[in-house]
Amino acid sequence: MAQAPQQLIRPMQASDLETVLAWRNHPDVRDFMYTKHEITLAEHTAWFAKASRDAQRHLMIFESNEVPVGFSNLHQIAEGGIADWGFYTAPEAVKGTGRALGKAALEYAFVELGLHKVCGQALAFNQRSIRFHDNLGFQQEGVLRQQHFDGQRYHDVVCFGLLASEWQTNN
Ligand SMILES: CC(C)(COP(=O)(O)OP(=O)(O)OC[C@H]1O[C@@H](n2cnc3c(N)ncnc32)[C@H](O)[C@@H]1OP(=O)(O)O)[C@@H](O)C(=O)NCCC(=O)NCCS
């Protein structure tokens, strides 16, 4: 029987910058983000430096068998442990990597950070992200109609929320 992969989530470090930038700029990721331009290394480095100084932000790398395969960020946006999250997997990652990353990031959010609620947003055409949130136990909390303009068209944004109590019930 094949051994289960060793998986962990850890803080992002400066040495991860180029790997994460390559994922973020890949069309399989970029096409589902609010900002779609190709990000330069200078822009990416400045983003990382600023986020690293912000105690409300947690940039995380998900590893499988010691190989980085995904990125997630948690951002505390309000008092009482309310956070937004974002995530993407390496474009070459095997199916199911996102789910494992999601579970690890949520465990970090609710156990390590003691957050009360994690909120996600997905562009309405991003069916994989919508399935992903549904599979992880998020509730769909509403649709922001025509909330995102991509330069040519408006897109609805689907809002998701998961409470610590709901997560604990299922884990
Ligand atoms: C979203 C993401 C992290 C999900 O990772 P993943 O779980 O490894 O992705 P999978 O390809 O296994 O798909 C997840 C679910 O979507 C379903 N799915 C995959 N492709 C799909 C498609 N084209 N249409 C509809 N559903 C799809 C899968 O079947 C799976 O659901 P299931 O387990 O119930 O079968 C990953 O696809 C990603 O990084 N996407 C690009 C960046 C992104 O969209 N980030 C989120 C922004 S809100």
From TrEMBL:
The keyword Protein biosynthesis does not apply. It holds the Pfam family Acetyltransf_3. Residues 7-165 form the N-acetyltransferase domain. One of its GO terms (molecular function) is acyltransferase activity, transferring groups other than amino-acyl groups. It comes from the Bacteria. Keywords: Transferase. Transmembrane segments: none annotated. The keyword Transferase applies. PANTHER family: GNAT-FAMILY ACETYLTRANSFERASE, SPERMIDINE N(1)-ACETYLTRANSFERASE. This is UDP-4-amino-4,6-dideoxy-N-acetyl-beta-L-altrosamine N-acetyltransferase. It comes from Halopseudomonas salegens.
